[in-house]
Amino acid sequence: MRYLVLLFLFLFNYTAFTQTLQPGFSKAEYAETIKANARVHYDLEKWDSLDKIPPSQQYDFIYRSPVVGLENMWDLWVAKNKSTALVAVRGSVMTQASFLANLYAAMVPANGTLELEKNQPFHYELANHPNAAVHVGWLIAMAHLAPDIEHKIDSCYKKGIKQIILTGHSQGGGIIFLLNAYLKNKQIKGSIPKDIIFKTYCSAGPKPGNLFFAYDYERINYGGWAYNVVNAADWVPDVPFSIQTVNDFTKVNPFRNAKKAIKKMKFPSNLIVKHLYNKGFQSPAYYQSNYYVRTGNIIALVPGPDYDQQFNNTPENTNIWEHHLFDPYLYLTNQLPD
Questions:
Q1: DSSP string of 262-285, one letter each residue
Q2: Over 80: is that where the pLDDT of 293 sits?
Q3: List of domains in the chain
């Protein structure tokens, strides 16, 4: 009898781990993405020092990309049973170029072409709505990463891996919003196999675009295939600054003829253009808005009294990153019901 029980437990655990990705938020899946997102920010030889974030027991590290664009990089992990691949995009690092990707907060149309290098255009379609617009800094980062990611996804597909988890923390989350939209729209048009399943976990993701982009993103991920997990004590998901004007409403609204009271923002585009100039980058035409909104299904990690005993949540705390790091996110995730 004992052996039958052990056999049942083995088969149950094996089946649970090998089943296809399902729609809906999974605490266990998100916890795995935290482990990958933490490690993509560190050199491989420093992984053993990440004592607060345990290593994955379900995924094997496969590949690390070169650093490209605005200090952008990504890692590829594959489930031990070869059923699922996980793409983890690095967020901000302490370099000028990396933070320029955040500061370059102008909006550009969600469909168009970037010329990242001379005579090497990058065509992108991120939404159907003609007024959809996205953060240009993270678009540039995504454009540098996408060709390599697509190549690896194709390699995985040829090996029978047809389930892909897309994830990124902080700036990485902002990039993943756009990567999701890029890949899903290519899949809709037939450029990516229809039987690939994409599931997305942005973590501490900022606001990636305007309302019309958000609507389209939520449409193509309908049914529980894309989440943004945020710590309610973290300020990063509330950026970029957002300014809504009468031009940001839908066509039918009571404000269309109201007098404009807000001057157009001037964006710090000169710094990033200078950084990329020698590579042949050409600045795209901007979309005249700065109305950024929260996007996707939000999973709110709301701290309780026990959290405040672990992390300093007082206004006097000078460590502005404390609630944005991986350990408070993992701590709060572990408090969620199974």
A1: SPPPPP-HHHHHHHHHTTT-BPPP
A2: yes
A3: 25-335 (3.40.50.1820)
